[in-house]
Specification:
heterodimer; A: mainly alpha; 9 helices; 0% strand; disordered C terminus; B: mainly alpha; 82% helix
């Protein structure tokens, strides 16, 4: 009985160690994905803005982009153009920025078409505000940092 | 007859019988012994492997094939579930990111915290 208990403890220790080795199961469980040169011609054309950083990306991110490339075919030309324009900018954002953007987008996605139109219109109005008005909204400078801004897109 | 005396008598009988074994039988026994010695396991020259071997032999002696199979099935189930979960999460990310990036809303609008506050305050007014 004691031997079985010892064996169970050893197995449990091995399992917990392997689980702790990676805090994110997605990172650990995603199998190796193709390098840039191994991608199909069509995939390379769609994912062209990511060519420079593709080979240094984690496997789960490569897999995600391959999923995006698959969905690309069903988009309108306008959507395709917007996607490719924002792709590089998105890939260079920090994980925290991407997470924040996804959370906000999920709220936006659930709005009615009228509400979405209002948000888009308000964004245009907000952009036209004079700088001092924007500073009044943001209040005194925050101690943590300025609001995250994406890196410049090409 | 106590136990010790009984053992003594058995030893006597065995020794006497040993003297009566034929020479050819003695030769056959000797050959068999040499054969057995030639195939017996030699002590490991690698102390690490020897220690590991002793450890597993000592600790897992009572573990049956059924236990090993159960552990393998459990490991396979955990592995398959983790793999499936990772697939699902990556597919969800592909969905959200495809929609987000193809949306006619600038990225800055999603990242600008002040815009959020301004939007809320303008909706209240």
């Amino acid at each position: 009985m004691a031997k079985k208990l010892a064996a169970a403890i050893i197995v449990a220790a091995c399992l917990s160690t392997s689980l702790q080795a990676s805090t994110n199961p997605v990172v650990a469980a995603t199998p190796p994905q193709p390098s840039w040169s191994a991608l199909g011609k069509e995939q390379q054309v769609i994912l062209a803005p990511l060519a420079a950083e593709w080979n240094s990306m984690e496997n789960y991110r490569r897999k995600k982009w391959l999923g995006v490339a698959q969905r690309y075919k069903n988009m309108t030309p306008d959507e395709q153009q917007r996607l490719q324009k924002k792709m590089q900018e998105w890939a260079r954002m920090t994980p925290q920025q991407r997470l924040a953007a996804r959370e906000k987008y999920n709220k936006f996605k659930n709005m009615s078409p009228e509400e979405k139109a209002v948000v888009k219109q308000k964004w245009q109005e907000y952009k036209q505000l004079p700088e001092d008005e924007k500073q009044r909204i943001s209040g005194p400078p925050r101690s943590d940092s300025a609001p995250p801004t994406p890196p410049e897109s090409k | 007859m106590n136990e010790l005396h009984f053992a003594f008598r058995i030893r006597q009988h065995l020794n006497q019988s040993l003297q009566q074994i034929d020479a050819d039988k003695i030769e056959r026994l000797k050959a068999a012994r040499l054969r057995a010695l030639s195939v017996q396991k030699l002590p490991s020259t690698n102390p690490v492997l020897a220690v590991a071997g002793h450890f597993f032999r000592f600790h897992f002696e009572g573990v049956h094939i059924r236990h090993v199979l159960l552990a393998l099935i459990a490991a396979l189930a955990i592995g398959s579930y983790t793999h499936w979960q990772a697939d699902e999460l990556v597919a969800q990310l592909s969905d959200v990111d495809s929609a987000l990036l193809s949306e006619d809303l600038p990225m800055e609008a999603l990242l600008d915290q002040d815009f959020d506050e301004w939007l809320k305050s303008s909706q209240r007014q």
